[in-house]
Amino acid sequence: MPKKVYYKNKLIGSHEFPEIDFDLHECIGFSWETHDDYEELKDGVGYADAYPIEIDRMIKKLVELNSKGATHVEIEYPDHIGYLIDGRKISMMSKEDMQEYKKEKEAALEEYVEKRKEKLRKELEDLENGRKPKRT
After folding, report:
1. What pTM did the predictor assign?
2. pLDDT tens across 35-67, in order?
């Protein structure tokens, strides 16, 4: 029978790199005040559907998150030109952690079931007494 693997995924910190297009403009010496436009001569096509960010800037933030305990990073490229990153600590759960997790999960399920039963009992009582049940 297959066994399940349990691991922890803890958020260590988040950071946003907003409007990185302005960083690139500065890097290439472009300014809307003195120039009309710019044109990119791209050599090669990669896989990323995103915007370039200076490697050292990203590394600096990754090192900072790593020094706080992050082992992994999630990177999102949202609607605006920038990146959102979450530093996460991913680690295996001990047997004690797994037992505690299972107990908490079972307790939460039991609490949900009891609340649901109580709600259904109330609705049934309302129906039996000719009252329209309240929907919540």
Report:
1. 0.69
2. 999 888 888 888 777 889 999 999 999 999 999
Strand (E) or helix (H) holding 107: helix 95-128
User: What are the residue boundaries of the structural domains of the chain, listed by start?
Assistant: 7-92, 94-136
Report d(CA 27, CA 49) in Å as an integer. 21
Residues paired with residue 16 on neighbouring β-strands, in sequence order: 84
Distance in angstroms (rounded) separating the CA atoms of residues 83 and 48: 13
Residue indicated by tokens 């990203």: 58
Query: What are the angstrom distances between the C-alpha of 61 and each of 15, 49, 91, 130, 135?
Result: 8, 22, 21, 64, 49
Residue 21 contacts residue 51 (beta carbons within 8 Å):
yes
Dist. CA 107–CA 62, nearest whole Å: 38
Which residue spans within 1-136 are E strands per DSSP?
7-17, 72-76, 83-92
